[in-house]
Write a structure and sequence with these properties.
alpha/beta
């Protein structure tokens, strides 16, 4: 049995950040990392953004293996966890003992109940490489879903000169996030770019016909394409935590020090349900900033820092010439106040609940995240007139 002072389950950005956090406090303690992917830790956002604009592959590697006394066990899945004996076993019947454990198991893409082998559930480097290879041969692509991944991949493929169709259950792109008028504007902008939209549609079947894929919708429409990409969200990988009887509620529940419900066990990243300090509620977030900051804090605390995770995570997206940064909770069902400096081109959207600002969307406005975070922390109450002009581009 291998023994580590720190054992990390997962090999994504959260796991890499945890190594960095540990090393800020403990420069020598042994670290083991068990990851299902064969690849070393890498940055995930460029897979749907920068790498389609020419960012080279070598720029995505995190360099986790360069730290001293770190062993990365790639291509292995942790299958059992005994918190009493402080040991983990993997799918190759190897066992690992630990003093401190971090669960950074992330999430798995939500899949369709059919045509699974033909669909690219875009999340990993292997998914990117598979899609990139398809684009070198094919011209027609269908993207299922109009959330973060779906809208980014559709834009990326369109900018590669591909014929793109977006098929989604909602009535417009980002309908669950953006206020209706912005979601409709964005949908129209995609159409003007040449992206065909099939809103309010579900997939009924996917089958391979020769070198093509035939996608049939619930309403009977048929699309024949060279590749199908799905961005349907993820489910947190909580099976290992459940098997060890850790508290799980839409993620592994942690306290403000990122400790799970067993001694010397921590959780961070996409899989962790944590107390959001600014919003005052338990949340689980699937964004880069949260993965990096929470992973780093978990690592520091495993090494004895004993610090509260009080960071307010940000998230961002690039959609053709449109981009944004955002903080807090973005839900189109909330009351929204739009302050456009230039209609649908540049402006701030505030999301309110009970007179308090719970989220801020900075549409083509940059370097204002600190102002937005401070506003969310204010008690209010706020009316629409109080917010107009509050946060604007310089």
């Amino acid at each position: 049995m291998k023994t580590y002072k720190y054992l990390i389950i997962g090999s994504g950005m959260t796991a890499d950040a945890a190594v960095r956090g540990i090393r800020e406090v403990d420069t020598d303690g042994s670290i083991g990392m068990i990851g299902e992917e064969a690849d070393l830790p890498y940055s995930r956002p460029p897979l749907s953004k920068g790498m389609w604009k020419g960012r080279p592959l070598e720029k995505i590697w995190r360099g986790t293996d360069k730290f001293n006394n770190v062993e990365i066990i790639a291509g292995r899945k942790a299958v059992t966890l005994d918190t009493a004996q402080k040991k983990v076993s993997d799918d190759h019947d190897e066992e690992y003992a630990y003093e401190k454990l971090l669960l950074a198991t992330g999430g798995a893409p939500i899949r369709l109940p059919f045509g699974d082998e033909h669909v690219i559930y875009f999340r990993t480097l292997k998914d990117y490489q598979r899609l990139r290879a398809l684009t070198e041969q094919g011209q027609r692509f269908l993207v299922i879903g109009a959330g973060f991944i779906g809208s980014e991949i559709a834009a990326a493929l369109n900018m590669q000169g591909k014929q793109v169709t977006m098929l989604f259950l909602e009535n417009s792109i980002g309908e669950r996030i953006y206020p209706p008028e912005l979601a409709q504007f964005l949908s129209d902008a995609y159409r003007k770019k040449g992206v065909e939209l099939a809103p309010a549609e579900g997939v009924a079947n996917i089958e391979k016909t020769g070198d093509s894929l035939k996608v049939q919708t619930r309403s009977g429409r048929v699309f024949e394409v060279d590749g199908v990409i799905a961005g349907l969200g993820i489910r947190p990988n909580v099976e290992l935590a459940k098997s060890a009887s850790l508290q799980v509620e839409n993620g592994i529940v942690v306290d403000d020090h990122l400790r799970a419900s067993a001694p010397d066990v921590y959780a961070a990243g996409d899989v962790a349900a944590f107390p959001h300090a600014t919003l005052g509620k338990t949340m689980r977030l699937e964004h880069e900033d949260n993965a990096l900051q929470m992973g780093k804090q978990a690592g520091r605390n495993m090494a004895g820092a004993n610090e509260t995770y009080g960071h307010t995570p940000i998230f961002y997206s690039d959609l053709f010439e449109f981009g944004y940064e955002a903080v807090g909770e973005l839900n189109s069902k909330m009351e929204t106040v739009a302050d456009w400096q230039e209609p649908f081109q540049k402006g701030t959207i505030y999301y309110l609940d009970g007179g308090r600002v719970r989220g801020v969307l900075l549409w083509n406005i940059w370097k204002k995240v600190k102002d937005a975070t401070a506003l969310i922390a204010e008690a209010g109450p706020f009316k629409a007139d109080d917010l107009i002009g509050r946060i604007r581009a310089e």
